[in-house]
Write the structure tokens for this entry.
Amino acid sequence: MSLVEVEQSWDEYCRDNANDDEDAKAGGEAEEKDEVRPMGHPVTASAMSSGSSLPLSTNSTSSSISSSKQSSSGAATPASSSSSAPSTNIPRQRREYPLFITWNTVSRNGHKSLRGCIGTFKAVELEHGLRSYALTSAFEDDRFAPIPASLLPSLSSHVTLLNNFSQPTKDPMDWTIGKHGITISFTINGRRYNSTYLPDVAKEQGWTKEEALISLMRKAGWNGSSSSWARTWRDGKGELVRYEGAAVGLLYQEWAEWRTWVEQWSPA
């Protein structure tokens, strides 16, 4: 299926499930009314669960990237996120974005563990970029073994589209926790270091801006003392670029339910 076909199919699937939810709710209410009068006790109606995705927002999945991985073609980064209500707010008039694809395993108690995350800061055509980086992050993130088929039932996948990049600034505090992702670069002994955190990282970790910057500098490869980060930033001609991100994600079970629906309604 093409990306456009997937989008159209997902919209139809969500509408179909929404109608089923309304029918189930209405049926439950009618059954409750019928039974309450003679039996004297209510029957609770529950709606059918449907596949769901993260709403598009200016926040993204948590992510980081080391200097050894960042390039115009791809970057590796840890990340995590959760799933919520369906959304069809993706700006489909625009088809090229910088993006990251994240794979997590989700335990029965909801704990997420990173299994791969690679992306690019270069705007790529969405259909090609999503397909390419989904495979790359699943099988070529050298921090992990390739994801085996046995992990499929516990997987979640998340896409973060990056936008609203600022001009470089020398002020390391010129960003907002929970809103902006940041990319930093600085020089030590003639070598330029760089690294990034996607918008949700600092907020999810409970960091201050200073703590986030120190962590990000260490992610880039700096191993100085925490008390010397500001001097290293100043002497190393540090620069910061802030950006925003839109995140969307899906659990394997949600994908499987949608896929079953597609196969059920597709022509033979």
Observations:
- Residues 3-39 form the longest helix (37 residues).
